[in-house]
Amino acid sequence: MHHANPEVLIIGGGVAGLVLALEIADHRPVTLLRPASDDRGASRWAQGGIAAVLSPSDDFDAHVADTLVAGDGLCDEAAVRFTVEQGPAAIEWLLSLGVPFTRDTSPDAGYPYHLTREGGHGARRIIHAADATGLAVMETLKRHVADHPAIRVRDDLTAIGLIADAEGRCRGARCLNGDGRLHALLAADTVLATGGASGLYRHTTSPQPASGEGMMMAAELGAELSNLEFQQFHPTCLYDPDGAPFLISEAVRGEGGRLLNVHGERFMPALDPRAELAPRDIVARAIDAEMQRTGSDHVLLDIRHLGEAAIRHHFPTIHAHCASRGLDIARHPIPVVPAAHYSCGGLTTDLNGATTVANLYAIGEVACTGLHGANRMASNSLLECLVYARSCAAALNRQTAPSEGTAPLLENQGGEDEADEGVLAELRERMRRIMSARVAIVRRDAGLEEATAELAELHAALAPLVARCRPTLALASLWHALRLARLTVACAARRRESRGLHFNPDCPGHAPGTPQPSRLHLGDLAHP
């Protein structure tokens, strides 16, 4: 038997994982499991910025109110207020590390850094680093992590499961190295910062989106999941069927971008008084409806009226990227389409990131804190990463000794056969097609029933491979993703209303009474 040690194991190296590592490394030994692929995850591609009350003309109550409206009645107000009130200190911490946020040099600036406005916000409160905020924050955090002697970064291992002791406490992770060999990383406390589940869908805003692997690793230990049906589709992903995904930041609309259909007609003002700055669920559904009405596969985002100088100043990354793909956005509208972007649901956590499994924490998109409710408001995601990484660190730092308990020796799970990578790729593509066709921006009862049956068939095909084949990254990832897809459909089918990101024309209004979050466990999944 291996005894747990005081080490903290962090799985995932996006913004949340990096912040946590820096905040606890002076108090406890840290192992940060950060495969190279984490550099292609969601944090790096966050363009818009971080929402926080920074301007003298803004206040906490206004940010809270805007977040509650966007969450469509399902936010946990205590979590919202906690997050919003911790925001300014989190930004000051990033500034102390040297994150190069864009300064505001105008003579009447009320705050030293430029603040933009995005959908759902009633004020300018988005601090940003041009239009590549995620990259700027990531590079700064990575530099500090690399320089910290108490942080051990492991880029040679990828977690495929968690380890529990006889008392049910989490004691670390089962990992695979590049040669496919199993390794155990044991720890007193384990923190998941593995991202969301946008990879369940065919079209996403990230080149390498997570598919809920962290959520399901925790669910295997009995952790509770919440609100899986609320998958956010970003309204404006660059439409290029032959190219890689690329997000067109919400800040483009915040600075005056207009949505047009393929006939050049503006459609948002007639649908919502906030027009292009309505919350993302409203804008994404409007685009989807306009595409269906006009029989087109995209709409247009027009910023030509801003002028080339302003476009280059505010959106240098977007301008350069589109130019590299043959599109001059100063002279032509940007073809855009909604794409899977952010999971508002995930592992149920408290304000310190603690899950319902002892010694297991979750921060960032893998967690469901109650902040987002039925729809995440723009730029609240990086804020959530910062605030909950810091609160989780404070909780872990207060623990003077690890809990008693032992973790078993790692045993090889699965058989000796080799899973066919082509078969796994085909099953994953089928899963993504089902989710995109039946469980995307608009869901219907009949489609959810079809998705339930079709995903059960995929489960029946994959389960024997899991039982007889040795573990591989592709097999483990697909096994996690497929089960999470089935749980997502189950949540969507149970919610007999339309709320936020979950829109079902068969039950178009809000259900009577106080809205309740969806909560379930892996054991609630009916096997085929």
UniProtKB/TrEMBL annotation:
UniProt keyword annotation of Oxidoreductase present: yes
Keyword vocabulary terms for this entry: FAD, Flavoprotein, Oxidoreductase, Pyridine nucleotide biosynthesis
Record-linked Pfam families: FAD_binding_2, Succ_DH_flav_C
Cofactor requirement: FAD
Annotated stretches, region: Disordered: 501-528
Pathway: Cofactor biosynthesis; NAD(+) biosynthesis; iminoaspartate from L-aspartate (oxidase route): step 1/1
This enzyme's EC code(s): 1.4.3.16
Enzyme superclass (EC): oxidoreductase
Every FAD-dependent oxidoreductase 2 FAD-binding domain range: 8-382
Protein name per the record: L-aspartate oxidase
Organism of derivation: Halomonas mongoliensis
Taxonomic placement: Bacteria, Pseudomonadati, Pseudomonadota, Gammaproteobacteria, Oceanospirillales
